[in-house]
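Checked the freezer inventory, then went back to the computational side. Two predictions to log before the end of the day. The first one is the construct we discussed on Monday; recording sequence and tokens without edits.
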Amino acid sequence: MIYNEIGKTGMRVSNLAFGASSLGGVFHSLREEDGIRAVHTAVDNGINFIDVSPYYGHLKAEIVLGKALKEITRDKYYLSTKVGRYGKDGKNTWDYSAQRVTASVFESMQRLNVDYIDLINVHDIEFQASREGGLQKIVDETLPALVELRQKGIVGHVGITDLQPENLKWVVEHADEGVVESILNFCHYSLNDTLLADYLGFFENHNVGVINASPLSMGLLSQRGAPDWHPAQKSLREACARAAAYCQEREYPIEKLAIQFSTSYNPRIATTLFSTTNPDNVLRNIGYANEPIDEQLVLDVQQIIGDQMFVRWKNS
């Protein structure tokens, strides 16, 4: 594995990391024992960064991950979880208040069976952007509460996550220097969408590390194709399906090319998260990341996708 530092945090993490959303049954049903084995397989084979959230499966992902972590020594991994976005009884909720996010950290530690969180993230700040106080509340209330926990040694580092990189940039610009140590963005550094690259210089100038997620663009870059709920426009879905078929004809799965692209094309991105409950998929993805990429196939696929690379989401 290749290991990169997340910003200036001192955390050197594998360029491919384990996203634990699938442990909550977010995308598919799971057998808990398979999910636990997937975590163990990842760590045993060099992955040392694990990301989760109380929102995933409405607490389930943290609970299952906590069972897996009981059997792994704490020096084998860096652990990231989140605050602000939750759910209960099938209903999604949001609460970015200082009181709630502080309590959330301790609740997560209990579920995860740890006494320290390496990286605590404010989850999907876009949902606060449209609420009372807007993103300024993240700057004035949410982040200071997490910084206090950082000062007490309860968490190691503080970050923010969102689909929209412009929101991440806004918060970094308006928070005091050093408050935000990392950002996590998904679906915007992949074969079909490199929007995140436009912001890498800004984050680097502010010593903010960059974590990428969803190299398969939530299923767009897969032989199976995107699920029905995927927000991509029809034209982008069709273009990605053509690209997947082209790769299949060359006996080079598009999943392999997508993993390789996201993990190897830009050294300013510390790590890329993928999620699965299948231990075999973990090993396959690690193998993909460690093989040299077919540069010509990247160009061919991006030509097939063409103008659709700039067509991202409905209503965007």
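The second is the one RB wanted added to the comparison set:
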Amino acid sequence: MDTANMKMDTANMIVNCAVYEHGVKLRDITIDQISDELAREGTFVWVGLLEPSVELVKKLQEEFCLHDLAVEDAYTAHQRPKLEEYGDHLFLVLQTASLLDGAVTFGETHVFLGRNFVVTVRHGASRSYTKVREHCESAPSRLAKGPSYVLYSIMDFVVDNFQPIMDDLEARFEAYESDLFMRDSGTEHLQDLYQLKRQLIKLRGAAVPLLDICNQLLRFHSDIISKDGRVYYRDIYDHVARVTETSDRLREMVAAAMQVDLAQITIRQNEVVKRLAGWGGILAIPTMVFSLYGMNFKFMPELEWHWSYPVVLVGITASCVYLYRRLQRVGWL
């Protein structure tokens, strides 16, 4: 790959790289200028990356003095949500979720947070943080709190995206539930309910670790998270708690619906068995008579009688009709 293509690919990976002072954006900078800006007092650097290459992450490691283990996690991806402390900076992994063609897709956002910098690395199905950046820049008084407010805005954006997904899953469940006692097929929605439960479990797995992360940010890391900025993380904690409670409640309802669905399948199977048993009883009458006459003894009663055959047919038909009506009356047919 030539130098021009490499520069183009690097430019696509760098979504944002700017320096801020007192909550106001000063200018966009290049990766090579980061270390110079970090040396200035009262400023912080905000860098946003999208699926960066190993070389780009290594370059950021040099500029920000990031820990080797955190850098390795950042370009490897497929990490669980967590918060790690590496000396003078924090490393967070957030699992993001979004709706794509009715299906829940998951991605990751890795965040490096220091006293004067914040770096976000997006992987997979993660929505752009352009709106987050615009919202922060529109409130200089809050952005003046520094990287801790940027982290809050990112986490709040991630958590807020969980709620529309939860609302969509609830709406889908209500549709399945209303159809549960009215449909003829017992297998169509059983698979849908299983997939719904699976998505709920994955969404809960993305949300629950944020409770522990918020607790750590509220209690520790006072050198990075300002005291007046901690109140924002309580707000995130409340939002996450609401999502997890809704997820647990909905998951229990889905499990109950699956049990009802399975019970209905069993009931329908019993109805089929009852019908088969009823028809078997009806067919037993002519089978018995035909088996008896199939012995063909010469001196069998009515064997040489002219009306024996129609009488037998009428008797069989009458017996079958009588048995059919009795079985239909008791609900077997």
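For RB: The CA atoms of residues 177 and 257 lie 7 Å apart. The two ends are 75 Å apart (CA to CA). Let me know if you want it refolded.
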